[in-house]
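Hi C.,

You asked whether I'd gotten around to modeling the 208-residue construct. I have! Everything is below, sequence then structure, no commentary in between.
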Amino acid sequence: DAFEASAGTSAIGPYAALQRAQCAATLGDWSTELNAAQSALSIEGGGPRLTQIEALERAAEASQRLGRKQQALDLYNRSLGLAATRGYTAEMLFTTASVARSLGQTDLAAERFRAIVVDYADQARGPGALEALNDLGRGASISPLQAGLVRFNAKDYAGAVCDGVRALAGDNRAFVFGHMADGNLHIVVAAGDDATTRARVEQIVDQP
């Protein structure tokens, strides 16, 4: 306050307002955090890209704390538009999908969870996005191979192999029934829908 009183609110661009937002967040003063973050965004266009992102995230966080979920989603969408790395893009896709889901916007949520699974399977949010997509009843919107790639990157090798076998078996059922003593996975494929004609095919697959 003293600095802004003597030097002006925009003497150092958006940084004084952003510092105010940071302090307000530490104190749990969400209204002040929101106002300060919005002020930072209004000064010099919010500054460099990373400064804009921090201000947008702080404004979105405060909006959520205040129960303004749609406002938070709009702000997070702006952060997503500024993403320049795979990791941050996946993070913002997950965040916006989660907020959209809480608002009942299930189509948007499913679209963004699916985007993570399909395009960012190697990122940390992959498993959570896959689980959320299944919880929404949209698991059929991705292939078993796409699901398997997410599990493989998460080091869920049993799940990855099982998805891979499902991809090869089409609509037939496949499941992992246990680990072999030699460190391999023992895969059982149940093929066909008719219980009297189903064939059980056993296959040993090296665990990665």
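If it helps when you're writing up: The beta strands are 173-179, 185-191, 199-205.

Thanks,
B.
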